[in-house]
Amino acid sequence: MRDLVKRYPRRDVNAVDELSFSVTPGEVFGLLGPNGAGKSTTMGVLTTRIIATSGTVYVAGVDVLRNPVAARARLAVVPQQSNLDRSLTPRQNLTFHAAYHGFSRDERSARAAELLAEFGLAEEADVKVDWYSGGMAQRLMIARALMHEPTVLFLDEPTTGLDPHARLFVWDRIREMRDRGVTIVLTSHDMDEAAELSDRVGIVDHGRLLALDTPEALIRSMAGRSVLELSVTPGPGDSPDSVLEPLLNVAEVERGETVGGPPNGADGVRLRLYLTADPAIALGPVVGLLAGRSSTLTDVHIGEPSLEDVFIELTGRGLR
Amino acid sequence: MTSVHVPMAEPREAPAGPARASARKAFLAILWRDVFVTGKEFGVLMLQVALTPLFMLFIFAKVLGSLNYVSDDFGHLLLPGIVGLAAFLSALQSVAFPLVMEFGWTKEIEDRLLAPLPTNMVAIEKMVIATLRGLLAAVVMFPVSALVLGSAPWRTEGLPLLVVVLTLGAWVGAGLGITIGTAVPPAKISIMFALIFTPLMFTGSTQYPLLSLGENLRWFQIVSALNPLTYVSEGVRAALVPSIPHVAPAFCVAALCAFAALFTATGIRGFRRRALG
Lengths: 320, 277
Fold this sequence. Notes:
heterodimer; A: alpha/beta; 2 domains; 23% strand; B: elongated
């Protein structure tokens, strides 16, 4: 996908602004970004449902903009919201989907039976779709997407709203699909999920790509970006701010803030220091400074950076 | 803001795709899906399409006829109109209502939009199934109306014209239905019923012959002449009871063709607008 631009009518800014990335066949690619960042629009273009303003987009070797019909035969989409056909039973949802994609009657029923069993839905394959729980509907939608043996599978927030069991089940299926050679593009708001599943992630905001790498490398780019959380009882005559101020002069401390009282409800103040180096190096001088002011240190917590920190660092803290 | 350089893999030549998928197969499969669902809901469909016209026929022809408020031949004027109304309105409803829900609410249609066929073909399929349902409604209305009235006009010579007019009429209904269905948000569905269906039903020359409106109701004649349903009613009457003054069959067919072209175009346009961002 190269230089993708999508501008909606009557909008001043591009929803997707010269976005470029490529996904290697067989990998799991996580597309992350805040609400309104352009993820859904990007997914829409990739899955032929949104017509791009400009740019080139290839999915499984097919030019999506020029030949959407051929692209549809090779890709599959699992949306966030259920779009199952409620006039049909779960099994018929699978068989009709395969029929749309040109499978013969025998292939359709065989594949449907196989996938229903794999997704634990064989017992409830012939009931009303309306009776399905959110987790079952999600499993059925993934099964449906696999009916026509897609080369690329798009999953939009595959586990949002699922209970932990269903989430683990979906994670396992995603890994299995990758092992079978299906290329997977997923979006998620759950950074742990993205880090867990994705071989590489792209972080998007304002329609632009901010970062693209393996989750490990992105987290490593925050190296030394550890967080030190201290609960401190200030010495006599000290205010929270006057405790914090000298700490900011420690070489390894990039910035700091007070974040209210200590978690156990005791007197005192909680400080958060953002470090540029290993927390162990900064801890010594910090403790020394606090002792010098007769402040008592009651709790220390070292936070290692996660993908979420990378995300917040890149996209800012503001609410969307 | 960090700038990221992404090495781009050159897109390979499109590999030979799954040979099994074809637009023709996909079209037939989504049509079969709709036929299958229509079959499952046959009883509900019949209630939906037959109830209003039947009551109209019963009250206006049978009840008022028995009370001598209307003459006996009124039934023979009304029945062809009712058959035309059934074809037109069933086609319209069977695409308009589901589309409002499928696009606005259930998103059920997405799986078909992602089938390997052009989006226009999905819209055409919607019109084909709606037309078939309209024709089915007309075919069912005939014997049922005959039962209500005790007799029904029939002219075998009129059969070709009847088939042409009903098919075109159902297609126009389908085109209008898809146009409305893609333009109306789900929250406004009840307003749509009041503002669109009722006027359509009562200005379509179903219950009166257009040409007899004459001097007294010239304005109503003009309003009726703008309603595509008028040419269905008049065409069916021309086929079955030519003794009643009616619009020339050729003119009915021409008008219906024009309406069909217009609403097919607006319908496909509306459908594409909703299906593709």
